[in-house]
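Priority: medium. Attachment 1 of 2:
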């Protein structure tokens, strides 16, 4: 891992505790995110927090709603706070790509919520923009989701599908313990 790898913590917000999202995967996500944040600070590496500011009326993630706040695992101030209303952190404000380029950062480490939505979208864009991308699977989670045929795909299966789709194509999929061992 590179000395200046930026940790990008995506949408670890209280609103995802809303029961309306349904059954989630990976109960260890928040502890792993907290461990990554702590390690990044201890090693003085760049830390980016991303917050989803939903434009949907009544969303638990809307600005001003209690669910818009970060979960307890996301502590302290980041080097950069991105606000977004779409899936990719690269379409948020301020401009993540410009910030990384200005600092000559060419490796990103992605964790957060949801594995197969905002985290995966950001990882794919990071790769397409030329960043060496590490995806910390066990520091993400998602929810059971119905497909267009009405069949529900389990959150754990969605996580495995994301890992299979990303690994060695868009990112290197890693786990928290191995990643922290490499710091």
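Attachment 2 of 2:
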């Amino acid at each position: 891992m590179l000395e200046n790898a930026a940790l990008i913590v995506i949408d670890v917000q209280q609103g995802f505790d809303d029961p309306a999202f349904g059954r989630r995967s990976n109960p260890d996500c928040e502890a792993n995110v907290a461990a990554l944040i702590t390690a990044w600070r201890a090693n003085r590496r760049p830390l980016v927090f991303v917050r989803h500011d939903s434009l949907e009326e009544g969303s638990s993630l809307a600005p001003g709603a209690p669910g818009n706040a970060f979960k307890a695992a996301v502590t302290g101030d980041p080097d950069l706070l991105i606000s977004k209303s779409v899936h990719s952190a690269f379409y948020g404000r301020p401009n993540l790509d410009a910030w990384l380029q200005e600092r000559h950062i060419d490796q990103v480490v992605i964790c957060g919520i949801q594995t197969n939505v905002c985290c995966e979208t950001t990882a794919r864009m990071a790769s397409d923009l030329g960043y060496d991308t590490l995806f910390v699977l066990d520091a993400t989670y998602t929810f059971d989701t119905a497909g267009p045929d009405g069949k529900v795909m389990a959150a754990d299966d969605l996580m495995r599908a994301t890992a299979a789709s990303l690994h060695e194509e868009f990112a290197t999929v890693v786990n928290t313990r191995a990643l922290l061992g490499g710091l």
